[in-house]
């Protein structure tokens, strides 16, 4: 029977509001196609304090409150029908009279929404004058009545006597006969039954294809759960190992064992939170797909032609949008392993010795053959991304310098690579997010900025966007792309491009018209300035319309000094270090970036892209940071050298740099610090143990 089939196709909780967890009362549909009770939505908006916006409690997508209030949200008519049918189906079978509770019900009053036996109907209901005229349906006829309800055409909200039997293809709206005569008489209006069947097939095909993606999200969710458990187990074992090791080590290491345990817990906690956030995101996307598919399925199978056409355009657009979503599978994390122990490694650092080349060597170059290059960025896989504002293009170049993709972007200015290989491109209509294959995922930042320009990612994974007109830096989270903060940079006249120093939070900003580069904290404080404001020049301390900026892993700052035809290198505190390439190497450099091999990528205004090797990394030195009292060596013949790196009792700042002829090291925020250099792998003496630890395929040496 039709009403039974209509009841069985839905999922168990399709009729349940996700806010009150009860069956829907006056269900309303949000633009994301999640349905809630009208009263629940009103309470949710009041509590959340979002004002003119509604944040969906399921998928967190924001939508504006319709003009006229929440009551203007589209009613879920077919869900209302489904709720009523469900009630009739459940309650009519062997139900006792709702009045006397002693006789089996025989009638249902559509007006009173109540069941009656024959006696109560005649002697009580029909005997009351004000109840005369109500529509009574025999229980035996309910199935036929339910079957007829499926094809009921909705009334027009503008002409109550007319039914919505037509569809205006010009305005994409369902209309009645009077609507055609008054406002749509010159439009192409067709019988709704003729066009609804076509759209039903399109919607059904679309949601069937989308449903296939659910298994991908389930796999991602399962993988995250496995890694969550592994992270928890690793934390427990790490803490146990550290506690067991504590009884065997000397007094100095005993002092820091508590700290090491805390480090292990912090490491595990951070990983767990990160995985939980990833899992939450995957679950939200999965739920969005499931609910949209369920909605579309119900609409196609049980919605009237009018109902189908009320949602046809938007539901297909929503399905198309969700079809682009792909689950992000978590990267495999490498455990901290040891041949003797397991221990957190934040107390140990791997320091590379490096040496500047006398002259930067040109490793490779290629002709972009497109136009005016405005921004450059590199991924960890070696892909180079270039944006050109004349013409508006985003191009991806492989490590072998072959074009991967090329897409049109309206007036692009800057580009950066996020940690998951998504791209953010600033352009005329805001900040566009692209997949690694060049597919436009979404746009954010509209309304937050006047003129978005340079873009980068800070040490916390947040997206930073420079607003040229409003002279500020907007900070966004990289998951929901919500605005977190605005950092004012009033010292700049024309801020363009930005970069962030590693191991500190200083933001480097190029000021195009003022011929300067500034270092700014997240609080907006200026920590350094390079260049003379308002004066261009080619001498030391001068710039000529600086454009792109970037930083390398050591903390050097690279500035594209456009019309001096050079790239300037500054120290992390803004002091001139050298000119890494000059007029003999480049012409009008605009974009600078560091690739995955630590090489400098320079994009020229003249379409050339050049890659330079500027430093030579020598053998690695393994360094142990010891906190507190200095450990004295009993044996001076073991080629072991100690160097006290910090003498003050006050902790150094996170940006404190430790200098050595061949080394540079950024220190964490800790107390008194000593550095130990181990030469030729010599064991210190009998009072100390030497352990080797592997963390993410990097070798560390710990002396205890």
Automatic annotation (TrEMBL):
<keyword id="KW-0863">Zinc-finger</keyword>
<protein>
    <submittedName>
        <fullName>E3 ubiquitin-protein ligase TRIM71-like</fullName>
    </submittedName>
</protein>
<dbReference type="GO" id="GO:0008270">
    <property type="term" value="F:zinc ion binding"/>
</dbReference>
<dbReference type="InterPro" id="IPR017907">
    <property type="entry name" value="Znf_RING_CS"/>
</dbReference>
<feature type="repeat" description="NHL">
    <location>
        <begin position="534"/>
        <end position="573"/>
    </location>
</feature>
<keyword id="KW-0862">Zinc</keyword>
<feature type="domain" description="RING-type">
    <location>
        <begin position="17"/>
        <end position="60"/>
    </location>
</feature>
<keyword id="KW-0597">Phosphoprotein</keyword>
<dbReference type="InterPro" id="IPR001841">
    <property type="entry name" value="Znf_RING"/>
</dbReference>
<keyword id="KW-0677">Repeat</keyword>
<dbReference type="InterPro" id="IPR047153">
    <property type="entry name" value="TRIM45/56/19-like"/>
</dbReference>
<dbReference type="Pfam" id="PF01436">
    <property type="entry name" value="NHL"/>
</dbReference>
<dbReference type="InterPro" id="IPR000315">
    <property type="entry name" value="Znf_B-box"/>
</dbReference>
<dbReference type="Pfam" id="PF13445">
    <property type="entry name" value="zf-RING_UBOX"/>
</dbReference>
<feature type="domain" description="B box-type">
    <location>
        <begin position="92"/>
        <end position="139"/>
    </location>
</feature>
<keyword id="KW-0479">Metal-binding</keyword>
<dbReference type="InterPro" id="IPR011042">
    <property type="entry name" value="6-blade_b-propeller_TolB-like"/>
</dbReference>
<dbReference type="InterPro" id="IPR027370">
    <property type="entry name" value="Znf-RING_euk"/>
</dbReference>
<dbReference type="InterPro" id="IPR013083">
    <property type="entry name" value="Znf_RING/FYVE/PHD"/>
</dbReference>
<feature type="domain" description="B box-type">
    <location>
        <begin position="156"/>
        <end position="192"/>
    </location>
</feature>
<feature type="repeat" description="NHL">
    <location>
        <begin position="438"/>
        <end position="479"/>
    </location>
</feature>
<dbReference type="InterPro" id="IPR001258">
    <property type="entry name" value="NHL_repeat"/>
</dbReference>
<dbReference type="Pfam" id="PF00643">
    <property type="entry name" value="zf-B_box"/>
</dbReference>
């Amino acid at each position: 029977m039709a009403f039974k089939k209509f009841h069985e196709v839905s999922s168990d909780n399709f009729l349940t509001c996700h806010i009150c967890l009860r069956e829907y009362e006056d269900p309303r549909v949000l633009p994301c196609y999640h349905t809630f009770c009208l009263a629940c939505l009103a309470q949710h908006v009041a509590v959340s304090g979002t004002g003119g916006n509604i944040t969906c409690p399921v998928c967190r997508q924001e939508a504006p409150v319709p003009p006229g209030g929440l009551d203007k949200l589209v009613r879920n008519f077919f869900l209302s029908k489904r709720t009523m049918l469900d009630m009739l189906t459940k309650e009519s079978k062997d139900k006792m009279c709702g009045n006397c509770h002693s006789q089996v019900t025989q009638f249902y009053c559509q007006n009173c929404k109540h069941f009656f036996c024959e006696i109560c109907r005649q002697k009580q209901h029909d005997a009351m004058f004000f109840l005369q005229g109500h529509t009574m349906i025999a229980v035996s006829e309910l199935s036929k009545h339910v079957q007829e309800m499926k094809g009921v055409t909705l009334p027009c909200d503008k002409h109550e006597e007319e039914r919505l039997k037509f569809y205006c293809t010009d305005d994409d709206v369902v209309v009645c006969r009077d609507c055609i005569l008054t406002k749509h008489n010159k439009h192409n209006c067709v019988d709704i039954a003729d066009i609804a069947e076509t759209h039903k097939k399109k919607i059904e095909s679309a949601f069937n294809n989308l449903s296939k993606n659910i298994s991908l999200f389930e796999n991602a969710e399962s993988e995250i759960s496995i890694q969550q458990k592994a992270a928890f187990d690793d934390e427990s074992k790490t803490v146990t190992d550290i506690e067991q090791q504590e009884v065997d080590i000397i007094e100095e290491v005993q002092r820091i064992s508590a700290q090491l345990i805390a480090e292990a817990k912090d490491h595990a906690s951070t990983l767990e939170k990160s995985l939980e956030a990833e899992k939450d995101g995957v679950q939200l996307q999965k739920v969005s797909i499931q609910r949209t598919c369920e909605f579309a399925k119900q609409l196609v199978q049980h919605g009237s032609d009018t109902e189908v056409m009320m949602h046809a355009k938007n539901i297909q657009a929503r399905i198309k949008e969700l079809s682009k979503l792909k689950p992000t599978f978590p990267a495999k994390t490498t455990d901290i392993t040891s041949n003797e122990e397991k221990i957190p490694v934040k107390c140990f650092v791997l320091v590379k010795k490096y040496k500047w080349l006398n002259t930067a060597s040109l490793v490779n170059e290629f002709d972009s053959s497109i136009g005016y290059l405005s921004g450059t960025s590199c991924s960890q896989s070696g892909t180079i991304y270039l944006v050109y504002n004349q013409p508006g293009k985003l191009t991806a170049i492989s490590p072998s310098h072959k074009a991967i993709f090329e897409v049109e972007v309206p007036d692009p200015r800057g580009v950066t690579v996020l940690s998951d290989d998504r791209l953010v491109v600033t352009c005329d209509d805001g900040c566009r997010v692209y997949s690694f294959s060049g597919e436009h995922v979404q746009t954010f930042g509209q309304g937050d900025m006047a003129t978005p320009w340079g873009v980068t990612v800070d040490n916390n994974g947040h997206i930073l966007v420079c607003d040229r007109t409003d002279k500020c830096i907007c900070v966004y989270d990289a998951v929901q792309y919500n605005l977190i903060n605005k950092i004012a940079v009033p010292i700049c006249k024309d801020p363009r491009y930005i970069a962030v120093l590693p191991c500190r939070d200083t933001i480097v900003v190029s000021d195009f018209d003022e011929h300067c580069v500034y270092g700014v904290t997240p609080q907006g404080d200026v920590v350094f300035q390079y260049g003379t404001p308002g004066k261009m020049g080619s001498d030391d301390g001068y710039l000529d319309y600086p454009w792109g900026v970037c930083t390398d892993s050591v903390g050097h700052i690279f500035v594209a000094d456009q019309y001096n035809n050079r790239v300037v290198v500054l120290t992390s505190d803004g002091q001139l270090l050298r000119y890494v390439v000059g007029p003999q190497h480049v012409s009008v450099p605009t974009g600078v970036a560091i690739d995955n091999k630590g090489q400098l990528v320079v994009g020229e205004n003249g379409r050339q892209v050049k890659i330079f090797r500027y430093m030579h990394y020598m053998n690695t030195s393994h360094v142990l940071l010891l906190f507190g009292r200095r450990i004295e060596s009993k044996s001076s013949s073991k080629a072991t050298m100690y160097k006290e790196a910090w003498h003050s009792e006050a902790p150094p700042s996170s940006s404190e740099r430790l200098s050595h002829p061949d080394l540079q090291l950024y220190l964490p925020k800790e107390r008194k610090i000593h550095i130990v250099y181990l030469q030729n792998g010599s064991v210190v003496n009998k009072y100390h143990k030497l352990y080797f630890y592997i963390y993410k395929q990097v070798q560390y040496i710990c002396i205890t």
